[in-house]
Amino acid sequence: MSDCDGETSSRDEQETSLLPLPDGDDEGDGEFQAEGKEPSSRDVGNHSSFHVSNGSISASGGVTAHSQRQHTVNVVILSFCFSFTFTAFQSLQNLQASLNKSGKTCLAVLYGALGVSCFLTPPLVQRLSPKVTIALCMVVHCVFTAANYYPVDYVLVPACGLLGLASAPLWTAQQTYLTSSAHLHAAGTTTADGNRRTRSADDSVSKFNGIFFLIIQCTQVVGNLISSLVLHQSRNADPDNGGNVSNETRTCDFTDTSNSSSLEVSDPVRYTLLSVYLACDVAGVLLCLVCLRPLAKSVSQYVARDWKSTCLATLRRMIDPVMMLLIPVVVFSGLEKAFIFSEFTKHFIADCLGIGWVGYVMLLFGAVNAACSMACSKMVSRLGRVPILITGALANAGVLIFLLIWVRVPSLLVVFILAALWGFVDAVWTIQMNTLFGILFSADQEAAFSNYRLWQAIGFCVSFGISDALAMSTKLWILVGLLGMSVALYLTVELKHRLTQPERDKMK
């Protein structure tokens, strides 16, 4: 889920539970030591010794330059595995409310299950290893895509629930693999003249996250381009007649959104689209199994948290006063993302312009989102978080208010402008929230980001669940009210952080 997707960069320094193998060794080679544990004979090899203590990694021997390059290659392979899989998922998520009658219900089940799976993740990744966890979860993505061939409730709803349960383990395994690779990449290189060259672990983590998200952000562009090209083969999605079933003029009346009927797409076109996406899913699984190097399972038993301690830490963090201020902000972000993926794609694009335009419009959304994510992360260091947030909040309010007063006639220009603005807004909220969580909860990021995923999933679930029961104007006014409250709470937390910063500096 693209949106589990943002937490990684802020929490990576803390995720060091597993270590990848030195280049050239089989699984289990290399000496791995954990605090309070003795390494097994399988962990001893003729390369560097890596020590894990209190979440930090150090190397006692030389790491070859070739090995460092291999860590980078591993992350690139990991990125393309996810890219294939989420090319299919992101696009199908955008089309669920338009293609399938029970699309919103399925998405509600998916994100509800995702919230539950946040508590199941640590023991699963610990037992199976990151590579195996990633491969199995990607197989579940194949099942979800295949279920769309026969989109009846008793097939699609269980498939969405299964995918939701697989989502948190998938992203946790990705975070573990990437961060471990980054720390080993930063461990240092012994040059030919015997000098030791080291680099900051933060730099390696930032570099690897940049590689990963640069590739993964392209999934919205590629996946939506595929859907648009395929769906435009259907007369029902012909842009010459607005993508409608007939040539009648439509006025996009949203006063009644309780009708959740799907738009007609011929079976050959549907099967062609799903076959392309299923091929992407299978390619991701095969790339993971064949090309992605495994991590040493022996280390996970020493440093990974068990299920009980993770749950207790998450619940304790939930009642933290600062976290309680941020929970409504996180829920709002989930509600608005769900509105974009269901209401905007169906009622503002598919119903007005035709389902064939969903891919093109969301392609622009994804492109702007990716560009603004990189731009905002750089501008924050120059301007600070608050000015960026205020700019994004004003743009957010402008989009919501415009939708309330818009005389709803089909307009490509208006819809594309709205998509671009929402891409910018989503990038701002994602960067600001993940950055703030990483700063405020740097000592306990695992529990903090478990709360982040949980409450954002609740926002998704509530939005999809009550969507058909509320009028469009009611949904928009709820978002406007929550936006104002979210900005106020965010600024309160920022002010509290700035006032207490001098005290923390003195304690250091």
Q: What would the keywords be for this entry?
A:
two-stranded antiparallel sheet, three-stranded mixed sheet, disordered N terminus, 4% strand, mainly alpha
Helices and strands, with pairings:
Layout lengths: L7 H4 L7 E2 L10 E4 L14 E5 L2 E4 L5 H35 L3 H15 L3 H8 L1 H18 L5 H33 L3 E2 L5 E2 L3 H16 L1 H14 L35 H25 L3 E2 H7 L3 H12 L2 H33 L2 H28 L1 H21 L6 H29 L4 H22 L5 H36 L1
Parallel strand pairs: 2-3
Antiparallel strand pairs: 1-7, 3-4, 5-6
Helix pairs in contact: 2-3, 2-5, 2-6, 2-7, 2-8, 2-9, 2-12, 3-6, 3-16, 4-5, 4-6, 5-6, 5-9, 6-7, 8-9, 8-13, 11-16, 12-13, 12-15, 12-16, 12-17, 13-14, 13-15, 14-15, 14-17
Instruction: Give the strand order of the largest sheet, numbering strands 1, 2, ... along the chain.
Output: 2-3-4
Overall SS class: mainly alpha
Strand content: under 5%
Shape: globular
How much is the average pLDDT?
74
**Number of helical regions:** 17
Radius of gyration: 23 Å
Helix coverage percent: over 70%
Spans where pLDDT lies below 50 across 5 or more residues: 2-63, 189-194, 235-249, 298-304
Give the SSE order as H and E letters: HEEEEHHHHHEEHHHEHHHHHHHH
Tell me about the largest β-sheet. 3 strands, mixed
Number of β-strand runs: 7
